[in-house]
Specification:
The complex is a heterodimer of chains A (114) and B (115). Chain A has 114 residues and is an all-beta fold. In chain A, 33% of the residues are buried. Chain A has no helices and 12 strands. In chain A, strands 2, 5, 6, 10, 11 and 12 form a 6-stranded mixed beta sheet that branches. Chain A has a 4-stranded antiparallel beta sheet with strand order 3-9-8-7, with no helix packed on it. By secondary structure, chain B is mostly beta strands. In chain B, 0% of the residues lie in helices and 49% in strands. Chain B has strands at residues 5-7, 10-13, 19-24, 31-37, 43-50, 53-56, 65-68, 75-79, 88-95, 105-106, 110-114. Chain B is globular, with a radius of gyration of 13 Å. Classes of the chains: A mainly beta (114), B mainly beta (115). The interface between A and B is medium-sized, with 27 and 26 residues.
Chain lengths: 114, 115
């Protein structure tokens, strides 16, 4: 069965600190895709990144970076030099070939304190 | 706005009434998904539709809930005889092909409140 676990429910950091959001997934499929979405206080869901199961290269986009490790079934998200605008709920999601849906974790609520 | 459009943004209903939530997918997208987000929880899949077809409704309650995506017009999620437990944010997402590698693009959601 597919499952996404985000064990950190809430995280608070002071501005300019680095923060890592954890995501652990389960799937029996060998081909799958992992996603991160951001949900700011306004409520919309913003797509951040997609990673496929065959590409374990880490990715960096500005202050954001993602660490995909198949050996530990993890797809962690790091924000460097956090800013107040990063305050949001972040969701990790999984899709594979066995279903038509995305499987979402329960989200990590990040608060960046000025 | 070329994104996924949901309306209304907020909807208030009394117990027993009907709620109709609308979703227009992104231009060029013919695959629509509905998710429900309960307070402080992640999104839970409800139903997946293509034009005029329900492909997967495994996440939708068997009673009171229905969804459609007609040939013309938006996708509609309909909840009949609403109860307090239906209070949630309902998100619609669309993708161009329905393939698992495609990001699903989400609308801003409809916040349903049941009095």
């Amino acid at each position: 069965a597919q499952k996404v676990t985000q064990a950190q429910t809430e995280i608070s950091v002071v501005e300019k600190e680095d923060v890592t959001l954890d995501c652990v997934y389960e799937t029996r499929d060998t081909t799958y895709y992992l996603f991160w979405y951001k949900q700011p206080p306004s409520g919309e869901l913003v797509f951040l990144i997609r990673r496929n199961s065959f590409d374990e290269q880490n990715e960096i986009s500005g202050r954001y970076s993602w660490n995909f490790q198949k050996s530990t079934s993890s797809f962690n998200f790091t924000i460097t030099a956090s800013q107040v605008v990063d305050s949001a709920v972040y969701f990790c999601a999984l899709s594979d070939r066995t279903g038509n849906q995305f499987y979402f974790g329960t989200g990590t609520s990040l608060t960046v304190i000025p | 706005n070329a994104g996924v459009m949901q309306n209304p943004r907020h909807l208030v209903r009394r117990r027993g009434q009907e709620a109709r939530l609308r979703c227009s997918p992104m231009k060029g997208h013919s695959h629509v998904y509905w998710y429900r987000q309960l307070p402080e929880e992640g999104l839970k899949f409800m139903v997946y539709l293509q034009k005029e077809n329900i492909i997967d409704e495994s996440g939708m309650p068997k009673e009171r809930f229905s969804a459609e995506f007609p040939k013309e017009g938006p996708s509609i999620l309909r909840i009949q005889q609403v109860v307090r437990g239906d209070s949630a944010a309902y998100f619609c997402a669309s993708s161009p092909t329905g393939e698992e590698d495609q990001p699903q693009h989400f609308g801003d959601g409809t916040r349903l409140s049941i009095l």
